[in-house]
Every structure is written in C-alpha cells, then in structure tokens.
Amino acid sequence: MPGAGTFRADLGASVVVALVALPLCVGVAVASGVPAELGIVTGVVGGLVTGWFRGSALQVSGPAAGLTVLVYEAVGAYGLPALGVLVLAAGMVQLGLGALRLGRWFRAISLAVVHGMLAGIGLVLIAGQLYALGGVPAPGKTLAKLGGVHELGAQADWAAVGLGAGTIAVLVLWRRVPARLRVVPGALVGVAAATAAAMTLRLPVETVRVTGVLDAVAPPGWSDFGELASVGAVGTVVALALIASAETLFSAAAVDRMHDGPRTDYDRELVAQGVGNAVCGLLGALPMTAVIVRSSANVEAGARTRASRILHGGWLLLFAVALPQVLEVVPLAALAGVLLHAGWKLLPARAVAALWRTHRGEAVVLVVTAVSILATSLFEGVLVGLGLAVAKAAWETSHVHVEEVWEGEELCVRVVGNASFLRLPKLLDSLEALPHGPAVRLDLSGLRHLDHACLTALEGWERKRTPLPGKEGVI
Fold first, then answer.
1. Per-residue pLDDT tens for 266-285?
2. What is the pLDDT of residue 139?
3. 3-state secondary structure (DSSP) of residue 414
4. Are 194 and 167 within 8 A, CB to CB?
C-alpha cells in the first residue's frame, strides 16, 4: 500500500484512469445490450474489490470490449435477469482455476489464437457499431450485419453519423496533440465534444437512457439459476471464464513489460478476477476483465501502487451517484465511435503481416480463428482456433523418416523421429517401397514417440515380410 511518497502519484493516476474508464464503461454496456449504469457498476467493482488484491499491482479491471460480443449473445439468449447468474458462475470457475494454480497455464495458449480471437471480436464489434453509428437497428447475426452494410447509407441518420465520425477523428488526432494536453483521455474529449455539438445544434439524435445506478442493479433470483441446467448456458459460462482469464493474463504480461515494479502473480490475479466477477454477478452487472487501455494509462500516468486502481473505482462510484444525469445527454453515436475505434485497434494487421513472412501456419490459425468467430460465435470460433493450433503443433512435431542400412544380406530399416497417426501414410509408403527380395529387420530404437496406430500398422507390415530365422518380431 502507498506511503506519503507515493500517494500523490497514485491519486493523480487514479483520476486519469477514471476519465479513461468512464466512456468505455458506458459504451461497452450499451453495445452489450444492457443498461449503461451496469458498465459503471462493473468498473466500480473492478476498482474497489479487485483492486485490493495483490495479483498485479498496476493492472486495472472493468468491462471490456473483448467480452461485448459474448455478453450480447448471452443476454439475447437467456435474458438480462440471467446475466448475473452466468457472470457469478464464471467468477466461481475463475476462483477454482486460481485455487488450483492453473493461472500460469494460460500462457501456453497459442498467440495466433489470441490474436485471432481479438481480430474476430474487433470485426464483430465493428459490424455491430456501424449500425449504432448510423442510428439504424442492426440484424441479429454478424453475417447478416456484414451483408447489410451496403444498405446503411440509405437508412442512416447523418447527424448521428457526423457525431460518431467526429468522435473517431478526435480519437485518431488526439495522439498528435502536445503531451501536456494528452493527460485528458482522447475518448473523454471525443465524447464530450460530440455531446456539446449535439446540445448546441439541438440535433435529434438518440442518447443514453439512464435509470439510476441503484435501479439498474438487479441481483439474480433463485429462479434464474435454473438457466445453468442448459448446455448452452454452461458453454457461455466456460467461455466467459476462459476468455476473461486469458485476456486478463495476457494483459498482465504486457503491463509487466511497461514498469519495473513487482511482477504479476498469475494465480492470485486469477483469484482476484474470480472474486470481482462473482461480486458483479451478485449485482447483476457486466463481467470484468483486466483492460490494457486502462492499465497502460495507469502506468503512463505515474501510478506506483495498487492504490491508484482502488481510487479509480471510487471516482467512478462518485460520478455514478452524484452526476448520473450527465449520461442522459451523451449521444449513442459518440459511444459507437469510441467502440468502432476500439474494434479497429483490436485488428492485428501488423501481426498477420509479420506471421505471414515468418510462420505462415500461425497466420492461417489467426485468420481461421477470426473467420470462425464471424461465421459462428465467439466460443465456437475460439474452439476452432485452439483445435487447429493443436493439430498444427502435432503435425509439426511428428517428424519421422526411414533409414536403410545393408548389413550383409540383410536390410536393416531404422525408423527415426516421432511416429504418430498423422505421419502414418508417409511411413507406410516408405516401407512399402522397399525391395521385396531381401530379408528386412525393423529397428524402432530411434523413435522418440510411437503411438498405438503406428505400432499396429508396423506390426502388420512386418508380418507380411518373410523374416529371417530368429529375427521375428519388431526389434
């Protein structure tokens, strides 16, 4: 915890992080199809609850664009009252993973799958927010949204489009302003400018609907827990837990590279996220994860201890209680602009180009994961990506070759490498191409791995040969 020498730095950083978090909390909630206040509630829990844990000193948690797609699908399938149950169950799964010290194993997930997941999320986010930008109702499925983009021009509210485009322009250009001005987050400036323009010009655009934080908080009832009996709901819980955990721990690895303080304890951080999501579930709020945008802002603002992220939750709570009416004048198009910019930043164009030059197989895994998410859902797309990554790794590691050595009149065939079913056709082709006349002795001592399929096939091939006296069997 801070002393007198660090409190001032942590206090200043907490204000910056709260200003970064505020428009993102609201925007993620609106894009997820839930009341705007629930996004702020999750941000508050991410600070005042998760912030106390020692897993990662400077990482900041809250609602994230990466979970928007999954939450939107869950709310559509099971209803808003069931969201709390799903988030609570996901938090309990994270607690279990942390208690079993499985946090470090998330680092074993293929980076290509992670980049593909982020790319898929970014594309889905962009497809949905284009409709929100134009004030047009969006189709339910992602492919339908993409198919209807060409018709948006004839239906769009161009006043809303102008506000959203202006917000994006501010976000893009804000990086070029002097450093002393960049203390104020670009997202806040863009939303504030769009709100001021809408009020000054009296534009008839749709704004955020506010019911009040206390009214929006709705703990799940006992009847809502019945949703967990369905296979789809269990799949959603697992997806929430795994994706939130992976995003958190990858964010932690990135944040650790940005400062010289204590390194992240992955298992403790997973427990912290589990506790935070359990509390969010009890409040009926959005799920949380560590967010790299807020975390990097925290580090860059000079935070020294975890007090900065705790205080940022306090600022969000103060705003939600004292100034909720401010949200009522924020145009939805401005928040769509913020999320479109966030979705664009999730697209790993440089990563794809670099992988294509050096590891084309990894680039294929990335693209297939992203396309699968677009075509199916986030959970199913990630499973496809993981399966392809495992198959690729198995293929690349199962190298096997056949060496032929004459020992007098006997041909010694030595099999070297890793003999798995993936290489069985190649192995049998090599063996069947051997000359039929001489006696053959099969030597498997050079194999590092031999699975059952290959062993059975090799024994069957050997029985077809005419063995030398006393040389029967596989040696």
1. 889 999 999 999 999 999 99
2. 76
3. strand
4. yes
